[in-house]
Design brief:
It is built from 8 helices and 2 strands, in the order H-H-H-H-H-E-H-H-E-H. The chain is mainly α. It has one domain. A two-stranded antiparallel sheet has the order 1-2. Helix 2 packs antiparallel against helix 4 and helix 3 packs antiparallel against helix 5. The longest helix has 19 residues. The two termini are 38 Å apart. The chain binds zinc ion (ZN). Zinc ion binds next to loops.
């Protein structure tokens, strides 16, 4: 493109229809996973709120299917399975669960399985440095306490099976992303 083309006010914007949607897809799948994990350890009232929040990433995935995958029946089917698995987690305990175990302690309020509580530090996140005082000045507390400032991944390993499987199959066999 010449300089005069570039400065031409009538020039059409560079529409790039080939942008790679994989990062966006991964982000949306991650959002759904986080919301679903939270659902497995909280009250039915909170599950309903979290379930509503899954609608926007589900909608985004449907749109990406339209824009980049020719509205694939296969992908739409996998998304429907995922949506159904989220509905299942929302409705566990016949919608009467009153226990909130979001702190990661104890067992699942629905199936009694011991709750998993994983620090992201142990898996993917870089290690936090140990607090060091410089010239006798203590660093701000919440900036350096590992596990305090980083949200732990807390979920019921049994109740999570259906949506974890649905996310995996949608990602790999649907969108062709290895996670
Ligand atoms: Zn459970």
């Amino acid at each position: 493109m010449t300089e005069s083309d570039r400065l031409n006010p009538d020039r059409k914007p560079d529409l790039n229809f080939d942008w790679d949607p994989k990062d966006r897809i991964s982000q949306e799948l991650e959002r759904i996973l986080n919301l679903a994990n939270k659902m497995t350890v909280t009250t039915s009232t909170n599950r309903q709120i979290l379930f509503q929040l899954t609608k926007s990433p589900i909608e985004a995935l449907l749109k990406i299917n339209q824009s980049h995958f020719g509205n694939s029946d296969l992908i739409r089917g996998f998304i429907a399975v995922l949506a159904k698995s989220l509905l299942t987690v929302r409705s566990l305990g016949e919608g009467q669960i009153l226990d909130d175990r979001s702190d990661g302690n104890g067992s699942c309020p629905d199936c009694d399985t011991v709750i998993q509580s994983i620090s992201p530090d142990q898996s993917t996140a870089p290690n936090h440095s140990t607090p060091v005082s410089r010239n006798g000045v203590e660093p701000p507390v919440n900036e350096f306490l590992p596990g305090k400032d980083v949200a732990r991944i807390i979920y019921c390993p049994s109740c999570s099976v259906p949506y974890t499987a649905a996310l995996q199959i949608l990602s790999s066999q649907g969108f062709g992303i290895d996670r």
